[in-house]
Amino acid sequence: MNPVLLKLITAWRLGPVNIGRALYYRLGVRFGVNPVRTLVAQPPAGPFFVAGEVASSASKLLFTPKPFGLDTNFSSESGIPLWHQSVITGQEAPCLPWWQLPDFIDGLGDIKGIWEASRFDWVLGFAKQSLAGDGQALSQLNAWLADWSEKNPPYMGANWKCGQEASIRVMHLAMAAHLLGQVTEPQEGLLELVRVHLQRIAPTIQYAIAQDNNHGTSEAAALFIGGSWLMCANSSGDGEARHWMNLGRKWLENRARRLIETDGCFSQYSLNYHRVMLDSYSMAELWRKELALPDFSAELVRRLQAATAWLGNMVSPDGGDTPNLGANDGARLLPLAETDYRDVRPSVQLASVLFAGKRAYQDSGPWDEPLQLLRVPLPATSVDYRRSCRYDLGGFAVLREAVSHENQAMLLFRYPRFRFRPGQSDLLHVDFWLDGLNVLRDAGSYSYNCDEPWQSYFPGSQAHNTVQFDGRDAMPRLSRFLFGAWPKGRGVSALGEKDGFQTMAAGYRDWKGAYHQRGLALSGSALRVTDDIKGFEKSAVLRWRLAPGEWHWKDDWLVGCGVRIHVEADQPLKRCELVEGWESRYYSQKTPLPVLEIEMEQAGRLTTELRY
After folding, report:
1. How far apart are CA 558 and CA 577, in angstroms?
2. The pLDDT value given to residue 56
3. At what angle do helices 239-259 and 188-201 cross, to 10 degrees?
4. CB contact burial 473-512 (16+ within 10 A = b; e otherwise)
5. Other C-beta atoms within 10 Å of 409: how many?
6. d(Cα 177, Cα 106) in Å, to the nearest integer?
7. Which of 53, 246, 293, 370 is 20 to 30 A from 585, comparing alpha carbons?
8. Predicted confidence band at 189 (pLDDT cuts at 50, 70, 90)?
9. Distance separating alpha carbons of residues 344 and 321, to the nearest angstrom
10. Residue 157: left if φ>0, alpha if ψ -120 to 50, beta else—which one?
11. 213 CB-side CA count, 13 A
């Protein structure tokens, strides 16, 4: 396909209105037409929170800020983060007006390494520490915020570059005030800190909306939360704050209708970004209740109920980990529970209570901690979201089977249903879980700005459990975050049953004529995958990305991690071997894992059987 025509078709699928919004934003900022260029404000001064009496002369952090969920810390001799230093590379970003900074700064590496410390996760940490009885926690919190305000004067530097990053800070400040009971009588410094953030967010929200992703939901939530807070704090009325509140509510409603499908799928086809979206709406709903504001629409609530059920059904059988599905920048918007970053149960439990009025988990556990801290009553009734289900509007299927009284098997199937732009070339990917072990797994994202081969590897076909044709991706890459020639699903079947197996099938034909049809059959003792392939030029490689561990050949079976794998083909195989691959379970970190590769040079059928 002609490259120009390919880009035009992709632009049309992104939407002419969205393209116009993005161009209007970029041109407006470049030429100074957008009012965001003229913003001027003084750094807000503390105190930001009422510290109360100091109960001890020394204070030890009861929490540890964890960049990207890793067991590492922000580096600083004083204990206060270095706000312009990357936690990934150690390099510092220049302090210029944010609109003068390029999207990718030479020598800095991934800008998310700068942004991580300024997402204000630690604001919630200090609030929790104060509630645990530390009399100095809020004094420390005020000191950190004062240092941040001084070192990040309004609209200067990398930490003001992204409206979503500013929005995350607003949400965390508001939730900390909610935790501490300081919403109705906030400090003037805190309100001013919120105001300078909303002044940055509001003029550019059209760009966030144009992206059809969680940028729009985050920024809408921040405008609604921050605007209503400023309005309620000003007894004489605040027209600007009211405008922000109404603008936020408008886009929260709009984004729920547009980006969340009726079956619960979200536009980004990403498990972690689904959580980011869900947490944003949960915080907006918590805030609405806190200030006794009018209800959101019934349609918004229905979409959020479906989105909660979708995420609740992605939790692994042991109830902890989740598939490494889709793009993932390490975001965790409401880190109140003492759980691993990858555990989504606290978010599912909170959203289920808020939008469905039922617990997702009847038994008590760390997933209840956010509700307890936020003073949200736990309902007596519960609902179990775990079930075999096809989410056809987004292109997902979950199959679940009992292996024994204690053990469960779960399969996640990804197939093309692209109403929105795909973030990874993961067509027909299969994730398989045996109880708590992710036996067949996805690679993750690693980094959005890194050197080759990693920039191409992690989003590409070779990083997923699927067939790669002729050493290329199933979709051509048009830019860092954009694939073209989105294929349509073919031969998609409903969930069925045959000979004691649950079944499902789907396929596609890609932009160069290669065809792949995959059939699945899952029982309590086996998984069978059939791959019919044709239309390629030189070769096709089937990959099974395996859990790290001891794997060895026994006759024609690959044995390890409690399973046996056997692959048959109706055509001669060029090779069948274990090679080294890579995965990223946490952003900016990569580790090796074994990958079974099976290569064919002729059209035919591959049958993989996995027994357990």
Report:
1. 10
2. 46
3. 50
4. bbbbbbeeebbbbbbebeebeeeeeeeebbbbbbbbbbbe
5. 23
6. 38
7. 370
8. very high
9. 8
10. left
11. 19
pTM above threshold 0.90: yes
- What distance in Å separates the CA atoms of residue 198 and residue 248, rounded to the nearest whole number? 11
- For 408-442, write each residue's pLDDT tens digit: 999 999 999 999 999 999 999 999 999 889 999 99
Task: Say how far apart CA 570 and CA 385 lie, in whole Å.
Answer: 40
Sign of CA dihedral 398, 401, 407, 409: negative
Question: What is the distance between the alpha carbons of residues 254 and 244, in angstroms, rounded to a whole number?
Answer: 15
Cβ atoms of 379 and 352 within 8 Å: the answer is no
Run of H or E including 565: strand 563-569
Please give the structure tokens belonging to residue 268. Answer: 């980004």
Rounded Cα distance, 221 and 247, in Å = 10
- Two tokens, residue 292: 């006794």
The CA distance from 93 to 112, in Å, is 11
Tokens of 77: 């001799």
Q: How far apart are CA 137 and CA 500, in angstroms?
A: 58
Tens digit of each residue's pLDDT (9 = 90 or more) over 440-490: 999 999 999 999 999 999 999 999 999 999 999 999 999 888 999 999 999
